[in-house]
């Protein structure tokens, strides 16, 4: 087995092979890794400006809705982001949502008074196998620290929200990748991978999971109970409806890795464009943007599917082994490939 991760598809990657290849996008992590607490928060900022004042167009695709996210209803209705996107564990969603509201109020003191309320956007996976999720260890200060350290250099694996996540009965976590189309547009993906039955794992088109499961002699998991959050950023000028179509193509990349979107799996994708911003006040002019023609979306769809699959590969590849709650342990895939 090659000790390099498989390269997905024929489209070129950006210079970082990361979601931050879309200019302006940054990512920050805060990782908690002590004993039974193996968790964290990850923040994705679409640009350096105040997202409440300078919203970006966005859309979501709920592939399987077994999840406890906050903010998806208004995102679907209005088609825009007005906070950074935050990722964390299931029981920490309320604390992070409150932190996002407080962050907006500090920057815009009339939020909820003379100004509209803000729609926090927090997405989650359940890291309770490795993390004592009942501790609800993630606080507003952790969210703020993740925002403060956001940069174009994106750490991957068992970091931030990915610290306690599992995939295919192995260590999962954060992964990222990007692809560029022939027309010069970039699509970047970031995933929080916490899903999959080991025997179903497809690794660059190869049935690696079957070989791993047979070699370890482990009992097969009966059901897929995990989740995955898939974020797509692009610099292509798309409206919210087109971004909904792009988000749905994340499912193609997910399926290639061996997921069947099981009953207990929360599989959610969010796509946003950085090509323009939308003002918060009605007296500000709306942007006049020529959108990509519908018949030219296929290259972006290909880039979305390939970058999501590559990001999942990277999440598994960069993960390190973690010992967590009650002595629970997850091996890293690279450990097994070295054996």
Automatic annotation (TrEMBL):
Please state the span of the N-terminal signal peptide per the UniProt entry.
none
- An example of a Pfam family matching this protein is Peptidase_S58
Superkingdom is Bacteria
Alphabetized, the UniProt keywords read: Aminopeptidase, Hydrolase, Protease
A GO MF term: aminopeptidase activity
Does the keyword Hydrolase feature in the UniProt annotation? yes
The similarity comment for this entry is:
Belongs to the peptidase S58 family.
Official protein name in the record: L-aminopeptidase DmpA. Serine peptidase. MEROPS family S58
Recorded source organism is Oryzisolibacter propanilivorax
């Amino acid at each position: 087995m090659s000790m390099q991760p498989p390269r997905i598809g024929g489209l070129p990657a950006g210079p970082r092979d990361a979601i931050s290849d879309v200019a302006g996008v940054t990512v920050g992590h805060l990782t908690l890794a002590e004993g039974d607490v193996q968790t964290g928060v990850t923040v994705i900022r679409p640009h350096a400006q105040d997202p409440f004042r300078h919203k970006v167009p966005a859309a979501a695709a709920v592939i399987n809705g077994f999840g406890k996210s906050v903010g998806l209803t208004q995102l679907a209705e209005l088609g825009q982001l007005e906070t950074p996107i935050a990722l964390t564990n299931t029981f920490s969603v309320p604390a992070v949502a409150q932190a996002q509201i407080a962050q907006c109020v500090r920057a815009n003191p009339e939020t909820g008074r003379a100004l509209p309320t803000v729609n926090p956007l927090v997405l989650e996976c359940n890291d309770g196998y490795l993390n004592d999720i009942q501790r609800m260890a993630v606080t507003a200060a952790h969210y703020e620290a993740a925002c403060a350290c956001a940069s174009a250099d994106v750490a991957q694996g068992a970091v931030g929200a990915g610290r306690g996540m599992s995939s295919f009965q192995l260590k999962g976590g954060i992964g990222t990748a990007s692809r560029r189309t022939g027309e010069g547009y970039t699509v970047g993906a970031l995933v929080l991978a916490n899903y999959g039955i080991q025997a179903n794992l497809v690794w660059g088109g190869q049935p690696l999971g079957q070989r791993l499961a047979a070699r370890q002699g482990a009992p097969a998991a009966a059901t897929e109970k995990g989740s995955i959050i898939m974020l797509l950023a692009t610099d292509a000028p798309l409206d919210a409806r087109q971004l909904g179509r792009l988000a749905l193509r994340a499912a193609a990349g997910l399926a290639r890795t061996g997921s069947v979107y099981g009953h207990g799996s929360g599989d959610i994708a969010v796509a946003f464009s950085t090509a323009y911003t939308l003002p918060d006040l009605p007296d500000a002019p709306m942007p006049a943007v020529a959108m990509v023609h519908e018949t030219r979306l296929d290259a972006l769809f290909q880039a979305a599917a390939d970058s999501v699959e590559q990001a999942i590969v990277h999440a598994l590849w960069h993960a390190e082994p973690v010992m967590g709650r009650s002595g629970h342990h997850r091996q890293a895939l690279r450990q097994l490939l070295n054996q």
